[in-house]
Amino acid sequence: MFRLFHATLKTCMLLPHQPKPLTYCSLLSQTSLQFHAISTHHFDPFLSTLLLHLKSSSSVSICRIIHAHVIKSRDYGDGFIGDQLVSCYLKMGATQDAYFLFDEMPKKDFVSWNSLVSGLSKIGQLGECLSVFCKMKSDSELKLNEFTLLSVISACVTENACGEGYYVHCCAMKLGLVFKVKVVNALVNMYGKFGFVESAFSLFSGMPESEKSIVSWNSIVAVCAQNGMPNEAFNCFDMMRVNGFFPDDATMVSLLQACENFPLGRMVEALHGVIFTCGLDENITIVTTLLNLYSKLGRLNNSRKVFEEISKPDKVAWTAMLAGYAMHGRGKEAIEFFERIVREEGMEPDHVTFTHLLSACSHSGLVKEGKYFFRVMSDVYNVQPRLDHYSCMVDLLGRSGLLNDAHQLIKNMPFEPNSGVWGALLGACRVHRNIDLGKESAENLIALDPSDPRNYIMLSNMYSAAGLWNDASKVRTLMKNKVLTRNPGCSFIEHGNKIHWFVVNDYTHPDSHRIHKKLEEVMKKIQDVGFVHETESILHDVDEEVKIDMITKHSEKIALAYGLLVTNADMPLVIIKNLRICRDCHNTVKFVSMVEKRTIIIRDTKRFHQFSDGFCSCGDYW
Questions:
Q1: Cβ-based neighbour number of residue 525 at 10 Å
Q2: What's this model's pTM, rounded to 2 decimal places?
Q3: Measured in whole angstroms, how far is the alpha carbon of residue 159 from the centre of its chain?
Q4: Cβ 152 vs Cβ 130: under 8 Å
Q5: CA distances (Å), origin 81, targets 25, 39, 110, 344, 498
Q6: Domains and CATH numbers, the chain
Q7: Which residue has the higher pLDDT, 535 or 20?
Q8: Sign of the dihedral through C-alpha 182, 184, 189, 194
């Protein structure tokens, strides 16, 4: 390992006492360097140059050459030199070199030990980091401080090591460092990442109000956002402002993240106002996240406005806008947008760009266009297709009924198909009732992930739809024996700054009586104008009347009735569903949009559906 090191050292020892600069990779080019003292000691310019180059070194070989010149130029009396070399070796991943040098340093002070702990933390060596930390703790001459703990806590977070993190917390308490603001902030962040929200809040609440910094408040807001607690995140934000703190970039990113899983329209609008008021609308990361959030809310027009207000959009912003078009099934608009930004803005598309573009084609049934872009992405733009791109193409061909073409594409793929590819084919087989190909797809999916209940359910549903009740029962029994369950279907709608949840046949809401009465009225209205139930999605061997009763009580229908009761007619009614919307509910909402003269937006796991005047933006293709 040290052959190059010793060879270089031997060469250096043949040089005069004041060695001349090397020319290796322009390592010692002095034309652009500003010499200055790096520590309290005075270095000669040559040595200062060597140390400055350590920070930009990109090779272990270069680091060893610098190490050799340091040895020739002076001893290790100045601990800072050895500390910098140890950090450089660790940054390069040369752990053994770092340990060898650290052990040979005659004068290791507290900074030297901290440099070793910090370097090990940054490269994710938790075990080694804790080992050095314990050695420091047992050395009576070394007094641990907050910087040591911060490095170890960071390593615990990176490796998601809950037990080790709790141990470090205990050490902080014994050492009397748990009251240091930076340590508490780090522990709050750590417990938040581990999902221990109560512990994070307990630490935060225990801090004196006078010592809480903007970092402290941002940490607790982030904890709420990461753990799916949007209301608590906004409550903390309000308290932060009451205590006189001005939100910064980190605050906004956390609050926007809090809205991603539970899109709350009024909260997002309020955040938009805060972003503008605080002058953060020039931050490309924040406005891109806002743009994406409006898309997830079903407000594509708002996304467009946000995008148009970005003075200098980057590739991430362009891709986010393209993803918005894809999510809403606006295939032609996505293609026009893609061609404009490539032609006029000079954007070089990457694999993410093409994933969204092909997805847009798939959601719009644009087979010809999808095939064209799949071909030119490698021929013209030199972007080699990945699994995501093949998954989009299989989905596109399968949705259009070209199941054999989709199957052939999978067989000709240059790599093994993943669950996304087989899942796309299975979904198409279910829609087009190709039992044989669907069974093959399901078997491959189950082989890839035997613990995913969705694969069994999809296969069982295919058998049920084809009337193969015995086969469906066998799959359900297999699933039961494996103790596999799926999350129940649910729909939610925002009203009065709250999220209102509904499940199938739900009577738990305080207004349940009014809701179900409204649902009965609406169903009668649409039946009077020609609506007929599609009971194919009820995959149980029961009478037709029972099927109709079951399908009428789906969660999205109940959420729809509630929305009609409480929202203004001039506002879009937005419903979020955690599963794919069934065909009967899809047709129901089309008719309701016509008779109630309402714009209704439903977001399921596949896409957005915008219903208006009896039509859906998906063109009945999803």
A1: 15
A2: 0.74
A3: 18
A4: yes
A5: 22, 9, 14, 52, 59
A6: 179-310 (1.25.40.10), 444-481 (no CATH), 490-616 (no CATH)
A7: 535
A8: positive
